[in-house]
UniProtKB/TrEMBL annotation:
<keyword id="KW-0238">DNA-binding</keyword>
<feature type="domain" description="Response regulatory">
    <location>
        <begin position="2"/>
        <end position="115"/>
    </location>
</feature>
<dbReference type="InterPro" id="IPR007492">
    <property type="entry name" value="LytTR_DNA-bd_dom"/>
</dbReference>
<keyword id="KW-0597">Phosphoprotein</keyword>
<dbReference type="Pfam" id="PF00072">
    <property type="entry name" value="Response_reg"/>
</dbReference>
<dbReference type="InterPro" id="IPR011006">
    <property type="entry name" value="CheY-like_superfamily"/>
</dbReference>
<dbReference type="GO" id="GO:0003677">
    <property type="term" value="F:DNA binding"/>
</dbReference>
<feature type="modified residue" description="4-aspartylphosphate">
    <location>
        <position position="54"/>
    </location>
</feature>
<dbReference type="InterPro" id="IPR001789">
    <property type="entry name" value="Sig_transdc_resp-reg_receiver"/>
</dbReference>
<protein>
    <submittedName>
        <fullName>DNA-binding LytR/AlgR family response regulator</fullName>
    </submittedName>
</protein>
<dbReference type="GO" id="GO:0000156">
    <property type="term" value="F:phosphorelay response regulator activity"/>
</dbReference>
<dbReference type="Pfam" id="PF04397">
    <property type="entry name" value="LytTR"/>
</dbReference>
<dbReference type="InterPro" id="IPR046947">
    <property type="entry name" value="LytR-like"/>
</dbReference>
Length: 239
C-alpha cells in the first residue's frame, strides 16, 4: 500500500519512516512538514492508500485537513503525542490513532488491520469489473449480467439486445452508451454500426467477416475495420 507521512517535527518523521521501512507491503512515497504541502501533493497525485498524519501542527492541523485528505486516501491514521484529540480524530473519520512514541508492535498491528480492509476494497473493485446491471422490462426491475457471459450486443432501434451464453436480455439504452460503458473492458469491440462482439467468443476472422463461436457471422464495417484489425495483428503469433 502506498503511503505518505505528515509531521512538523523532523525526528517524528524519521521515526515513522523507520517503522514503515520494516513493513514490506508499505511503500512510502513522500514526507511533508506541512499539511498544506501534503494536500497540494494529493491533489496532483489523486490517490494514496494511507496517510499517516500528526494532529498538532502550525497553520493547518491534521483535524482541519481531514475533510480534504479523506477525499484522496483509503485510510487516514493519526500519529500524535496527545490522547485528548481522539474524539475529534474519529469524528474526522480517522481509521487509526497511534500515540507517540509509536511502538513497532502497535504500528504493525494497525497496518495489518488496514491490510485486511484494503483487501476487501480490492475484492469489491474486482467484483465491479465482473458484472453490470441493466434495467428489466418492469418498473424497479434489474438484471445482473456477467461480462464473461456476453457473446455479442445488437442494436435494435432505440434499445439493445444483449446476447449471452444462456439467452438474451433487452434494455432501453443506445449502443453508443453501452460501448462507452464497456470501454473499461479490453475484450469488447464494436465491429459495425449495430454490433459489439466479445473477443472471448470470436472464433475467427475471414476478410471482412467476424465469425463467432456460436455460428453468428457479422461484417466488419469500414469505420471500425482498421482499429479492430490493428488489435488482432498485435495479438497474432509471429514466427
Amino acid at each position: 500500500m502506498s503511503c505518505i507521512v505528515i509531521d512538523d517535527e523532523p525526528h517524528a518523521i524519521d521515526e515513522l519512516c523507520e517503522l514503515i521501512a520494516q513493513v514490506p507491503h508499505l511503500n512510502l512515497l513522500e514526507t511533508f512538514s506541512d499539511a498544506r504541502q501534503a494536500i497540494a501533493y494529493l491533489q496532483e497525485t489523486n490517490h494514496i492508500d494511507i496517510i499517516f498524519s500528526d494532529i498538532s501542527m502550525a497553520v493547518l492541523n491534521g483535524i482541519e485537513a481531514a475533510e480534504i485528505m479523506n477525499n484522496y486516501c483509503h485510510f487516514l491514521v493519526y500519529v500524535t503525542a496527545h490522547r485528548g484529540f481522539a474524539p475529534e480524530a474519529f469524528q474526522a473519520k480517522a481509521d487509526g490513532y497511534l500515540l507517540k512514541p509509536v511502538s513497532y508492535l502497535s504500528f504493525r498491528q494497525k497496518v495489518e488491520d488496514l491490510t485486511l480492509k484494503y483487501q476487501d476494497i480490492l475484492r469489491l473493485q474486482k467484483d465491479e469489473q465482473q458484472f453490470l446491471f441493466i434495467k428489466g422490462g418492469q418498473k424497479s426491475s434489474y438484471i445482473k449480467i456477467k461480462y464473461s457471459d456476453i457473446v455479442y450486443i445488437e442494436a435494435m432501434l432505440n434499445y439493445i439486445m444483449i446476447h449471452t451464453t444462456s439467452g438474451h436480455e433487452i434494455t432501453y439504452i443506445g449502443l453508443k452508451a453501452m460501448e462507452d460503458k464497456l470501454q473499461v473492458m479490453d475484450i469488447f469491440f464494436r465491429i459495425n454500426k449495430s454490433i459489439i462482439i466479445s473477443l472471448n467468443y470470436l472464433d475467427r476472422v475471414d476478410g471482412n467477416i467476424a465469425r463467432l463461436a456460436g455460428g453468428q457471422n457479422y461484417q466488419i464495417g469500414e469505420k471500425y475495420k482498421s482499429v479492430f484489425l490493428d488489435f488482432l495483428k498485435k495479438h497474432t503469433l509471429k514466427s
